[in-house]
Amino acid sequence: MIDLGYESFTATPHVMEDMWRNNTASISKGYEVLKNAMKEAGISNKLRMAAEYLVDGNFTRMLEEKEELLTIQKNWALIEISFIEPPRNLKEIIFEMQIQGYHPVFAHPERYNYYYKRLNELKEIRDSGCIFQSNILSFSGYYGPAAMQCAEWMADKGMVDLLGSDLHHERHLEALRKLKLTKALAKVMDQMADPNNSVDAVL
Ligand SMILES: [Fe+2]
Question: How far apart (Å, rounded) are the C-alpha atoms in residues 195 and 22?
Answer without folding.
Answer: 36
